[in-house]
Records
---
Amino acid sequence: MNRPHPAPRIRHFAFAIGMASILLLSAQAVTAQSLRTEYGSLDAYSNEGLSLAWAILKAEAGQGPENDCILLRIVMRDGSTPALLVSGVDPFTGDRKQLSTVKGPGPSTELRLPRSHFADYPRTEILFSDLGWMIYYFGIPDTTPEFLDEAKMEVYLAARLSAAK
């Protein structure tokens, strides 16, 4: 019984895998090129139908600044919930940590982190996957206000986000 040699089939399979890999890499390159990236430098930002603001809630007396709570609040102007992927990144090692957002007051989304987080992951990337847009920050913006009272922080954030619209 004469069976065909498997080498041609293996070559065809290897060729197909190679072509699939090239197509996948090309698609990723196009996606990376079409993603708009912007550097955020201030404690408030408004663009693409969204507003975001940072604030710092100081730790209780006797606790160090590493226990401060850093808050980032994001509001879509149309009231929708954004499709977000938020990452903390160590720019020196490339290590990434996915960060969890929670529902904030009204139509907002929040990220709350201890100040100590920024020692290990100083870059914060906020990817709005539905908009094809990313904003990133190095550390906490210098202009971010600090509050001792959470109620005062909430009043500030509400005013800052409505003014940014």
---
Amino acid sequence: MKRLVLITILVVVLIGIFWFVFSLNDNTSDEALTQASSNTVGQDNSGRIEEVESVPGMRQYIHNYLGFNFLYPERFRVGGFYEGESGEVILVQSQEGEVNEGFQIYITPLPEDVTLSPSLIMSELPGTLVDDPKQITLDGAVGIMFESNGEGFDGKSYEIWFTKAGNLYQVSSHIDFKTNLQDIIGSWHF
């Protein structure tokens, strides 16, 4: 659990940095995803993008190793990078440069199975706000969604966290993107 705390604290600090750097790089293509040869989350953390003919205006992100996928608006771009043994980050952001339109997925391996709850999050991450929490099930993954005080999102973030197959998925966005994020994550499949 201590490792989870350290990783999550690091994530909170890095969210702002990554979001800022990613938003400055308007030339990032969907295919420009970082690949790594060694990964505790997966041996091949790259993803691929596919057009979705049955859903106009949407694309599908498919994670090659972990096998999950989700739909996102075609006006968004996807990028990602591997952070060594601590996990990987997938960024999905508007190509128009709207800073509040987009989200980040931080995937970290868990040392043990956990059931996410407000009390666990607040005990592991003192000072983290867990406001209006709701338990969720997402294609078999159990988790929680809540409003928080994410520093990388001007102190107001929307969080959807869940666990599946030994990994913690922390999906974070600006609070203003809450409804859109719920719709996008609602399309998530493992």
---
Amino acid sequence: MLNQVIYDGESSAACSHAAYIKKEWFDLLGNTLFLSRCRNGQITRNELHTFVRQHQLYSRHFTRYLAALLCNMENDHDRQSLIINLFDEMGLGDAGSVPHSVLYRNMMYKMGVPLDDNPLPTTAKLIDAMFDCCRNPNLLVGLGALCLGAEGIVPAVYSMIINGFLSIGESTENLEFFIFMSAVTTSIPTQYSA
């Protein structure tokens, strides 16, 4: 299964939102310094651990991003679809009984990566930008941020992160969160009444 997850420039097709994201955008993302170092096996453990700590600070708010977006949805069907995703994130839906935030912290513990409450300035800006987008009265702004800017890139980005961890000898057992999230089809529906 792991070989199917590793980014090859084409793996983005596994994501339901990938059809809305141009291949050249995935290529640009994959060619950023951090992700290209992961993909090429040139990354250090310290760099990966810094990413894991900062990503936890961003992603621990994911249910709050969904809740902020939910406030702008007037259509009952759309709200129900997003609530299903929220339940999955909280460990109350079909995607398991453990909240995704707990799965992530468990992964950190297995890796020996301590929790950090000090976001880098870029992480703080990302968190603020995601909240701003999800709170925007124009629903399409929040949907674009969450569906395309976050969920839509997960398989491609996480596959490169996995490759980086494997290149430094990290056990696949410790990568359970990234592997699970890379394999799961995104659950935020792509059709809303905006």
---
Amino acid sequence: MVQKAHDAQRNKINPPTGGILLSAEKPPRFSAGMTSIQNVPGLSVVICSWCMEFFKQAHATYCARYHLVFATKYRREVLKQGMGAYLVKIFHQVTKKFPDVQILEAKTDKDHVHLLVSIPPKYAVSHIVKFMKGRSAHDMRKKFTFLNKVYYGTDGIWSEGYFVSTVGIDEEIIRRYIEHQGQEDSGQAKLVF
């Protein structure tokens, strides 16, 4: 597991512009105002100037971020003050079992949780959500025993479903990337992160 975590960190790619570079021998200096595609000497294409991290696995380079929302069962307002911090701590422990999953942001309310999570494409989002909800319900009921009375006769504290939405680049940037992808495939431009 420790080796997997080390490999995931080593394979993290953070380009200087926060975007994708095509055909650059060495990265030029970039201004904050750079947009999707510009002609820079020694550089064919710059795509997206927003700051985003890309990760590399054996056969995939990805930036897959998801906004997740879990609601408590029956929308009961059981997440009292102080419980939210413990819950966030439990969510961060997911990375022990799945070292390449990252919890980027986590915020709790009285009856639901918002998470911004980076999940690699080798895992199904539903699998990670199932693990997070199951683990957190078990640990929360163990630490806060009043939840056993509130949810008597059930195993979890979360409602059955969840909300998920992808977070990423806009359609125009994807179109421009696809437009120039043929150059990279034919060897005219090399994809460099």
